Amino acid sequence: MIGYVTVGTNDLPRAAQFYDALAAEMGTGRMMDFDTFIAWGTPGGAAGIAATKPFDGQPATVGNGVMVALEARDKEQVDRLYAIAMTHGGSDEGAPGPRGEGFYAAYFRDPDGNKLNAFVMG
């Protein structure tokens, strides 16, 4: 149902470094790259993510209660995505681990403060 998700950034080169690393771990890369907007994903594949400077020219801000969830292949990939996020300027919102029966996740923020998680069901 979701085609893609965008997050705002005030520093596109910094966001690019963060999301390039996460995308590489997930086996994808950039599919669109402009001066104010970069999108990662695979055409015809699962939903992608984009980082953009806001169109209205105002500073990007974090949406309270908004979170982007990245579906991982397995628990080990959840762990790797979390480590990559921490290495590339992310901040911790909850280390990898079980979150109830059948749900394993890690929570983190990108360098602009946008909240993400990496998860696997089962």
Distance between the termini: 21 Å
Main-sheet strand order equals 1-4-3-2
What's the gyration radius in Å? Answer: 14 Å
Shape: globular
The CATH architecture category equals: Roll
CATH superfamily: 2,3-Dihydroxybiphenyl 1,2-Dioxygenase, domain 1
Overall pLDDT confidence: 95
Structural class: alpha/beta
Q: What is the domain total for the residues?
A: 1
Which regions have little confidence, pLDDT < 50, spanning 5+ residues? none
How many DSSP helices? 2
Proportion of residues in β-strands: 35-45%
DSSP summary, beta strand count:
8
List the SSEs and their pairings.
Layout: E1 4-8, H1 12-25, E2 29-33, E3 37-41, E4 48-52, E5 68-71, H2 75-87, E6 91-98, E7 103-109, E8 115-121
What does this entry look like structurally?
With about 120 residues, the chain is an alpha/beta fold. It has one domain (about 5-55, about 65-120): Roll (2,3-Dihydroxybiphenyl 1,2-Dioxygenase, domain 1), CATH 3.10.180.10. Helices cover about 20% and strands about 40% of the residues. It has two helices and eight strands. The protein has helices at about 10-25, 75-85, and strands spanning about 5-10, 30-35, 35-40, 50, 70, 90-100, 105-110, 115-120. A four-stranded mixed beta sheet has the order 1-4-3-2, with helices on one face. It has a four-stranded mixed beta sheet with strand order 5-8-7-6, with helices on one face. A hairpin with a 3-residue loop joins strand 2 (about 30-35) and strand 3. Helix 1 (about 10-25) runs antiparallel to helix 2 (about 75-85). The protein is globular and about 45 Å long. The mean pLDDT is about 95.
